[in-house]
Amino acid sequence: MTAVPVTIMITSPLEPEHARRIAAACPESTEVIYRPDLVPPSRYAGDHDGDPGWTRTPGQQDEWSGLLAHAHVLWDFPVRDDEDVEFSLIAPNARWVQTSTAGVGQIVKRLGLQGSDLVITTASGIHGQPLAEFVFGVLLGHVKRFGHLRTEQRSHHWERFSTGELAGQTMAIIGPGRIGREVARIAKAFRMNVWAMGRTNTPNRAKELGVDQLFGRDELRTMLARADCLVLCAPHTPETENLIGRGELLAMKSDAVLINIARGAMIDETALVDVLEQGHLAFAALDVFRHEPLPPDSPLWDLPNVLVSPHSASTADSENGKLTDLFIRNLEHFLNGRFHEMEPRLDTSRLY
Amino acid sequence: MTAVPVTIMITSPLEPEHARRIAAACPESTEVIYRPDLVPPSRYAGDHDGDPGWTRTPGQQDEWSGLLAHAHVLWDFPVRDDEDVEFSLIAPNARWVQTSTAGVGQIVKRLGLQGSDLVITTASGIHGQPLAEFVFGVLLGHVKRFGHLRTEQRSHHWERFSTGELAGQTMAIIGPGRIGREVARIAKAFRMNVWAMGRTNTPNRAKELGVDQLFGRDELRTMLARADCLVLCAPHTPETENLIGRGELLAMKSDAVLINIARGAMIDETALVDVLEQGHLAFAALDVFRHEPLPPDSPLWDLPNVLVSPHSASTADSENGKLTDLFIRNLEHFLNGRFHEMEPRLDTSRLY
């Protein structure tokens, strides 16, 4: 490895064992700044934001800013969702940021980094498995009528019944990226038909993605009209904002299921509430919302055909271990100047 | 096809469209007796028992017995679970019975058919997919903490949290037959480790079954002690009766999940209740019970860590369509004397 001194700074909550693993993977010339006392305390495994009520004292803030000014590598952007700062002013020496989330396009834009040559590697792929597990938990609970089972159980009532099944159903995926492909792979194991709408639609693309059929943006409603479930996995970009409006929702089958594990801004939430209240959609499982936390007076909380999940479907107890593995792989490439081998890279122009 | 006259009799509820398909598949010399007026009315799609309150009038019973006496092929055994009759007396001309369920060993024994040369093909395999979907619905709902989500949703409470995941967990399967292999196949898609205990344990057997490791009967507790979930799929035979006793339940991890989609008699139900009440097992999903219907005063109904399912996990709306396909395939073999090609065959000696 190179002997150029490099300073790595951990800027979000991380368990000591993972910080130790990172330090152990570094050459002597590399310094790891791990100061859990200067970041908000973690609330659960894989919490990258930490307690929102926690703030730094003025003294801590000075120390924090001083450390940040010298760091070359950051584990996470050192800002909160509601902070408005110019990244180049607070971290002028940063060359590479490894984020702990996948959908960082909007934060990169907000920090004034669109089009910059900062290396940004994301957690894209880390969340594929937990998100796919969420998707199939929702779909199976719905198709196998677990809600009905619980009602029957409460009244000690035994009555045999029949259910649908995932096998033979058609799943439509919007955004067949790493997460969408993981969902598609498991859907195929359940013997579902899998369709997808993505940005590219070349002849070999469906096979590459592991789906049965690809649809173009102009065929969205055609795809929706024939799908039994719709899974939103696309990044939040200008093209996906409000992609699912009232017309798209009404195009869907009335017994279809909608799952949003992408970003709340993809759906017209007002139209969604209307459509769900009218029973036009059978069920919606939402892990993301236009405004998070979902306001306590949102009608979504009380709809019987909605599962509200607090943006936690991707969060698994194993997450920071996997992120640490990823960081260490990327660090070795970074220290040896093999920037092109670092992955998964964010395209800072296209923001995904 | 052969010209020998053959009489087929449908002895359990079946939708007219399926009976029509069977008739259409028959040569002219074959007669199909389809008398929905002489069988109990169906209560749900795939109901093979029909309304237990329904009975034949004496006139209907005479007509039924007369028809049965001449039938060569039966769609289902023409007896109810609680009837005690000698099969050879009521259906002396029967050469082949296609059953609509998989686990028929006990009924075959009760009808005096153990060791007989009656051809018995079962529905084994038909239920693999619906049962596997039940298994993963249970496991995902548990690991992704859907119960916690519902509680949080009821109180409009947004708090991010972390969960476990199926990926990396170890599943133990007892009875890697058609159903167990389907469960194993999907478990591998979820990146689980899959172990199994079956009757044969030869070097290539694990690979044939699609599992990572096989355990012998004498290693049962060793396997249970290291598994995150146990799925019972074995047939009900003298070897599997009471296989999971108190000692086996106590050998399991306290955060493990137990799923029984086999037969209730495989588990010591009293010990199971104790173990669940003490929180030694995290969760049990039971589709089968020692006494069915599960008595209204069974403590299982009210345990918060139990899902009671009324022996319906295998019942899918598509079932009779699939059974009809299977029957038509077997019928062609039967009419052409290719008995060895009929499948899946019950071994009338071993009863599975």
Regarding quaternary structure, what we see is: homodimer
Please tell me the CATH architecture of the largest domain in chain A by its name. 3-Layer(aba) Sandwich
Q: Could you name the CATH class of the largest domain in chain A?
A: Alpha Beta
Number of helices of chain A: 12
Strand order of the largest sheet of chain A: 8-7-6-9-10-11-12
Number of strands of chain A: 12
How many structural domains are formed by the residues of chain A? 2
Distance between the termini of chain A: 30 Å
For the largest interface, the chains and their residue counts are:
A-B, 55 and 55 residues
Return the average pLDDT of chain A rounded to an integer. Answer: 94
Instruction: Determine the CATH superfamily of the largest domain in chain A.
Output: NAD(P)-binding Rossmann-like Domain
Shape of chain A: globular
Helix/strand order of chain A, N-terminal first: EHEHEHEHEHHEHEHEHEHEHEEH
Radius of gyration of chain A: 22 Å
State the major sheet of chain A: 7 strands, parallel
The CATH topology of the largest domain in chain A comes to Rossmann fold
Helix fraction of chain A by DSSP (H/I, runs of at least 4): 25-40%
Indicate the low-confidence ranges of chain A by residue numbers: none
Q: What is the structural class of chain A?
A: alpha/beta
Kindly estimate the percentage of residues of chain A that lie in beta strands according to DSSP: 5-15%
